[in-house]
Amino acid sequence: MGEIRIIGTAHVSQKSVDEVVEAIGEWNPDVVAIELDQGRYNGLKQQQQNPDIEEILQAKNFNQLLIQWVLAYIQRKIGMDVGVEPGAEMKAAIKETEEKGIELALIDRDIRVTLHRFWASMSILEKLKMFYALAGSLVVADDASDMIDIEELKKEDFVTVAMDEFHKFSPRGAYALISERDAYMSYHLIRLGQTHERVLAVVGAGHRKGIEGFLKEPNSLPPMANLVETIKTRPWGKIFATAVMIVFALIILAIVFSGVGTDVLILALMYWVVIHGIPTMACTLLAGGHPLSAITGFLVSPISALHPLIAAGWFSAIVEAKIRKPRPSDVKKIFSAESFAEMRKIPLFKVVLVAALANVGSSIGTFAYFIFIFPILGIDPGVLLSTGFENMTHAITNLFA
């Protein structure tokens, strides 16, 4: 086994750039392994092909896209404030290997696999906490230069505390985003060490400790197949939508058979439409969506809330895409935006944001309906349900008598 050296970097640190260049020059490794996959490598080299917009929209993984784009923006914003381009140390490593004729190895897992496993592994509560944290991070990023000491991010004690906090915040998310990638990169480094005498690894400081642990105890590595397979998740969304449909139907049936009158039934149905439509419309407009997209969300939301296979945000996004006409070049614009306000003006980002927030609005409407329907109707739910189901039972009994 060859010697493996690991440099733990901060992705927006000039000192990390200098350390990488110095290590390559002094140690003269046989291969330099960097924390990139092929897609991100192509992006740094500006060799990435423009994605197909239709494929992006049809995939409907709007939440995962937003996470990726917002995280990239936060990192880029910090980099702009401290005067260092995000990924500069990776670019420096690539440049040095090209100039010196040293082999370059990409050892990180495909970002699409990582995002899928990250999103699929988290609970609903963890996802809500993550969105809240990201929203706060967008605000903090605007003053990053005054609040963040980049070199502090690389110190072992700070990194350890940060990783521990992330694992407390989202245990399963942290495992998919950090621990699994530690293992994945360790596999590649071990293989490189079997064929090269000197291997220099350039990875984020948060990965260094985990990788070193796996290199010392290779038997602790999880099977490689487990690190790249698709996670089969329980269809909680479909289960929730089905439950909503059943509860709504039971409430309507109870109203019909309780004898409270058609006025109450009409009010209950109108409230279902309004309480879903208004939050969906409001969230669409909050995302910067076109009024037609907002109206679409208003009309579709009461129906989609009862169907486990469709979502209001999808329809609002379709209308938004027809109006805004996003282009493949929008992806590059998103990754180069200098402010969140600028990013929100990009058609593709706006379409994805509309889809995500419209779905949030529809969900708010569902919870609001079941919380406030009986107070608005001015009816005791216990009396209504017991009377309604009792009369319905008698009606069914008489029908088959």
UniProtKB/TrEMBL annotation:
InterPro entries: TraB/PrgY/GumN_fam, TraB_bac, TraB_PrgY-like. It holds the Pfam family TraB_PrgY_gumN. The keyword Transmembrane applies. The chain crosses the membrane at residues 236-257, 264-288, 294-319, 351-377. It comes from the Archaea. CDD domains: TraB_PrgY-like. Keywords: Membrane, Transmembrane, Transmembrane helix. This is TraB family protein. It comes from Methanospirillum lacunae.
